[in-house]
Specification:
There is one protein chain. By secondary structure, this protein is an alpha+beta fold. It folds into 2 domains: 296 residues, 2-methylcitrate dehydratase PrpD (Orthogonal Bundle); 128 residues, 60s Ribosomal Protein L30, Chain: A (2-Layer Sandwich). Helix content is 48%, strand content 7%. Strands 6-5-7-8 form a 4-stranded mixed β-sheet. Strands 1-2 form a two-stranded antiparallel sheet. A two-stranded antiparallel ribbon has the order 3-4. Helix 7 packs antiparallel against helix 8.
Amino acid sequence: MEETVAEQIGFYASKTGMADFAQESIKEGKRRILDSLAVMVAAVNAPPVASAKRLLRRWPTAQGSTVIGSDLKASPQDASLVNGIMVRYLDFNDTYLSREAIHPSDMIPALIALAEAFEASGEDLLKGVLVGYEVACALADAATIRDRGFDHVSNIAIGAAAGAAALLELDFERAFEAVNIAGVNAAALRQTRAGELSMWKGCAAAYAARHGIFSALLASEGVTGPKPIFEGELGYMKAISGPFNLPRLTPQATRILKTSIKWWPVEYHSMSAVEAATRIVSQIGRVKPEDVERVRVSTFKVSYNIIVKDPEKWRPKSRETADHSLPYITARTLLDGDIWLDSFEDVKMRDTAFLELAEKMRVEVDPRYDELYPEAVPNSVEVSLKGGRVYSEEVIHPKGHYKNPLTDEELRLKFARLTAEKLSPEELEDIWNMVMSLDRLRYVGYLMAPLSRL
């Protein structure tokens, strides 16, 4: 009898180990952890993070996992929620593009919290991360769920359960049940990313990852879940994804090699538009709206549907909407010459220069670009000035894309820029070295200690 999807994932999570992984995958796992820690540090005081911390302070505990940037300890699932909001809030963590687009590093804070609570080693954490990436990305390869009204974080819940099962070294039966439990409550609605976006945009994946590791914890104590959770009469395929065959899960965990690290804090489909806009600014200087006749942006259908078509994307009123708005992101880059964390402050969104430039902007879908996606994220930006001069730039694989990856030096520069206000150069060096030698770290808690003192 053919294995069910949950059985395939359970077998993979329980049987795959460090000896199976490709060295390139192990290195990229370390780089994704470093990237995630930097983004988390930068978001340590973000509004939804502060709200979640206040909630945890109502029921303090002396043991558990570190809540970054505080003296708080919490259960691994609760620490994973707060730290997970940090990794996602700035829209600056990694991306995997396939039939579904996901941010697999959304699982990293949850797996770190679990590893710390169970006094696991750095090698245990790496195993959990690489298994989680492989499973979540394979699910993204298998089916598109956004067009059916469901959010991509459904994949994160199941991937996190698999990663947690691997980290905790659950046997097949318990790993299998972790997937069943995670799957039955994995459905998340796509309304999270429609219209004017709320704080929940930065919380949804953290909530899903929390559910994933808690599913593994329940399974570790003998709780069972419904089955077959994917193929069943009222299962995941019937309700959420439609029928699919799970692509082969690679023992070498090579899907992480096709994830991309962000160089700018924007929704990934707009990344190449930012790079194109910066190239134009390098030629003509920062754009002044009064000098512009028109701006034309060419993109692809998936990009248009996610970050252009809603009226709210043309007049964003929240940070969450602005960093998911191709018109705003492109205009802001042309106006300022760059885009960074402060580009999404209220004063910037209300800026009359942006409003004036947006009025002169048109965004269109180029069918040629549809043919390149998801292996590329092509955008072109054309600025026509009064007087007749026209400047145009096209970018297919932006900096940080897996086909144009960041070097270690560039990743370190991103890390330093994001953490400059919170970490000393010595602390940065210690964390960098600890993660780069993570497979030799005896206890993940050593990594978290300096992050509690921010």
